[in-house]
Amino acid sequence: MLIKFTAWWITGSNAILSDALESIVNVVASGFALYSIGYAARPQDLDHPYGHGKIEFLSAGLEGALIGIAGVAAMGKGIYNLLHPQPVEALGLGIVFTLLTGGVNFLLARMLLQRGRELNSISMQADGRHLMTDVVTSGGLILGLGLIFLTGLVWIDNIIAIIFGGIIIFSGYRLLRDFVGGILDEADLTLVERVIKLLNQHRSKNWMDVHNLRIQRFGANIHLDFHFTLPYYFTLEEGHREIDVVTGLVSQSLPHEVEFSIHADPCVPPISCGICMKDDCPVRKQPFRRRIEWDVSNAFLNEKHSLQTPE
Question: What domains does the chain contain, in order, with CATH numbers?
């Protein structure tokens, strides 16, 4: 941030100023992201039975809002100086400074994105995506400053500032979108599909269906709950054993800490018999007719599967 403001002070370039204004956001947002990661790591307590992970969505929302403000300021300054031009100086030095800061941000962004994916940290991934956007704008800024250096057309500087302001605003919108989706428990369809595919691949003949499936994210952790239809004559111990198989399978296959809430449902002969693959069932009322593949549409519904329900 200091290097960018130094470059703006030396050159007077509004394009460099737009980049520097976004760096203020980088510093403030990264500070809050650091706090939120520490807060999210606190264990569950009586006041927060699902943990403290949702604060990471607030971190992404704050960053998105600050980015939007910086983008508006950059566009406003560019528009003002289109009407009231001012000279731009020492462009060579400005290009060198911008290249240096862009390289540093690229390394930081790569590290944050990699570690954010490994730790499933929303704050780290949001900060990494923001910095990678900054890298892209720095690259465009270098190109624009080069054009000014070669042509001497100072108005190009203000056009670049306006364009980059719009890019910065869009970047802020994406982070705000993540914030709203997280606070409202928007479904992560990629994760839902992954869980359903996993259950399909390791499906037992005792598992008739999975329905009313829900996944919520709490920072780096997720909460998974669904209803699980099993043979009605299973003992509590047998039903618990099947549920243990599912929880172990999902826990080993997902790079998250998963909390489960699984409700065991009894099958309903003869409605369930047509989809039941248990060939040694002692109470079968109807022959097996067809296996229903589980997917997002039928696993989401809050009803037992049968050949009369949507497949």
Answer: 2-183 (1.20.1510.10), 189-300 (3.30.70.1350)
